[in-house]
Amino acid sequence: MFPLRARKLLASSLIPLALAACAGGGRPGDTAYVARDVETLYAAAKARLDEGQPKIAAALFDEVERQHPYSPWARRAQLMSAFSYYAAADHNKSIEAARRFLEIHPGNKDAPYAYYLIGLNYYEQISDVERDQKITLQARSALQEVSRRFPASEYAADARLKLDLVEDHLAGKEMEIGRYYQRSGKWISAQIKFQNVVDDYQTTSHTPEALFRLVESSLSLGIPGEARKYAAVLGANYPGSEWYERAYRLMQRHGGIAASPAPAAGGA
To answer: For 256, which DSSP code?
Structure first.
């Protein structure tokens, strides 16, 4: 079944329809081209969606548009088709359908949901940090578009929450690469990756470790002054963290640190 929140958001964005009781037969032939009046065809698609058969529902919503392209129902069916493909985890078709809706109806009241749906499709394809992050970047771009275009909408509020997770994911990828460079002794390359996290993803959960790794890399590159600078920033912003405790101990072994002592509790 599709996510409850996404379904609630869709329900709140579309005008409720007074559908006829005849919802279609539910036979395999329902998706074949059989001329039907628009209300019956739309009702059959909606019934399939409610029954947890989003792939068939998507095909039927597509059929609404094909058979009745100039009907007001066609516009509703386009967006419902995009949602049904999303519910069926057919992300490419869902994105394609949502974009087509926006091309035809750019100023429609349901445009915010179409933009949001595109972001959701990318967001749910995000892979682990060990893989290529192209989809993650596309998710960030799409979610930022929702927040930029419709800042007061509930879609924007949810997009901003997801953007925080996307940023954390991208920072995690930078950290994963930086740690690999460290293990390989490529200290300058590692330094660049950790600095990226501090500069571009400073509100994420990875920043304390990135600062500690910058301390490590700076010491390995023979620039203890830079190491002290990073350790001091770490102590000022994350004084009780494990990463500051480790940085403090490391700097003590290399001639001290220009910051307050690490707390006694905890340890690496």
So the answer is: -
**φ, ψ (nearest 5 deg) of residue 118:** -60, -45
In whole angstroms, give the CA distance from residue 224 to residue 216.
Answer: 10
- Which H or E run contains 41? helix 38-50
**Among the listed residues 12, 43, 20, the one whose alpha carbon sits nearest the alpha carbon of residue 113:** 12
Distance CA(24)–CA(51), nearest Å, equals 12
Convert the pLDDT of each residue in 95-150 to its tens digit. 999 999 999 998 899 999 999 999 999 999 987 766 778 899 999 999 999 999 99
What's the CA angle centered on 201, arms 147 and 170, to 5 degrees? 80
Phi-psi category of residue 18: left, alpha or beta, with phi > 0 → left and psi -120 to 50 → alpha = beta
Identify the three-state secondary structure at position 30. Answer: helix
User: What is d(CA 50, CA 251) in angstroms, rounded to the nearest whole number?
Assistant: 62
Residues in contact with 227: Cβ distance below 8 Å, sequence separation at least 6, in sequence order = 214, 215, 216, 218, 219, 251, 254
What pTM was computed for the model?
Answer: 0.74
Q: How far apart are CA 257 and CA 260, in angstroms?
A: 8
Question: What H or E segment, with its residue span, contains residue 261?
Answer: none
Around Cβ 205, how many Cβ atoms within 10 Å?
12
